[in-house]
Amino acid sequence: MERPRRLRRSAALRALTREVSLRPDQLIHPIFVHEKDSEHPIATMPGISRHSLSGALQQAQRAYALGIRSVILFGIPEQKDSQGTGAFWEMGAVQQATRLIKAALPELAVIADTCLCEYTDHGHCGPLCEIHLGGPEGTAADWTVDNDAALELLGRTAVSQAQAGADIVAPSAMMDGQVAAIRAALDVAGFQQVPVMSYAVKYASSYYGPFREAAGSTPSFGNRATYQMDPAGGYREALREAQLDVDEGADFLMVKPALAYLDVLRLLRDSFDLPLVAYNVSGEYSLIKAAAQAGYMDERRTVLETLGSMRRAGADSIITYHALDAAAWLQENQ
């Protein structure tokens, strides 16, 4: 008779035979930073706030003390415009926070989210252009993101972030050709050593709702379905998007969201040898928080199980709003 339970009968035996590891240095802590001097809790994401510059530094210091070695910064500007020019302003929130964190914690990797949606007054990931659609009553006008105009702005944003000291730039706009444009801009500016962490496979997901409140990036009209991926698009689209970014010079690949797309995460792990990042997004975070607060689930066990599933599916690292809590729990387990 087979008896697999022999290897589960004690904590020591379970640890000895465990296949999946989860460590604090595999977690990436997201930080929302704005230009105000106060901390603003985010109602839809319990425990998460918009931070001042000093607050962002404190978050980074806390993460480092817990064994986390990477943070990703999202900026919320005071002023927005149609082009998102605040994204590459040298005194922008991300740029200032990067300089402050790197001065205090030079060994902490600072990742800069490279997008325009937080900085445009319409909430889309690039400047808009008018298009004309044929119809039964003639030609109707509509608006869409100008892909190629966005590329130049994304390149400028990445260079500005690198100049501020960002260790990694992470383009998330899902514009065609964005990795190539950013790689070229960085190289011309002398930042050949700065890697690109591509949001390679990013879906037009309903799980982003809490983030959009946090970052103030909800589109003022329409949605992002014309540039983010179709949740029902299937494996071929995921492979094509990832391969394009590899060919354009990406140094990391990312799947976003993670939990509803673990199959896609596994597909990319089996198909590419670049470091693979899972983004445990805001909606996934808030669902667990709400259930835990209602007493439906044990938060600690659920979080660690969820993050472990992403590692098991093939993620090398995980962006997660649970990072501080998870790292503390992992240290206690040690």
Distance between the termini: 34 Å
What is the percentage of strand-forming residues?
15-25%
Counting helices, strands and paired strands, the structural category is alpha/beta
CATH topology: TIM Barrel
Measured as a percent range, the helix fraction is: 25-40%
Mean pLDDT: 94
The Cα radius of gyration reads 20 Å
The shape, in one word, is globular
Q: What is the CATH level 1 assignment?
A: Alpha Beta
The total domain count is: 1
CATH architecture: Alpha-Beta Barrel
CATH superfamily: Aldolase class I
- Poorly predicted tracts of residues: none
Which series of helices and strands comes N to C? HEEEHEHEEEHEHEHHEHEHHEH
Number of strands: 12
The count of helical stretches stands at 11
Task: State the major sheet.
Answer: 10 strands, mixed
Write a brief structural summary:
This protein has helices at residues 11-16, 53-65, 93-104, 147-164, 178-188, 209-215, 235-248, 262-271, 282-293, 299-313, 323-333, and strands at residues 27-34, 40-41, 49-51, 70-76, 109-114, 128-135, 138-145, 168-171, 197-202, 252-256, 276-280, 317-320. It is of the alpha/beta class.
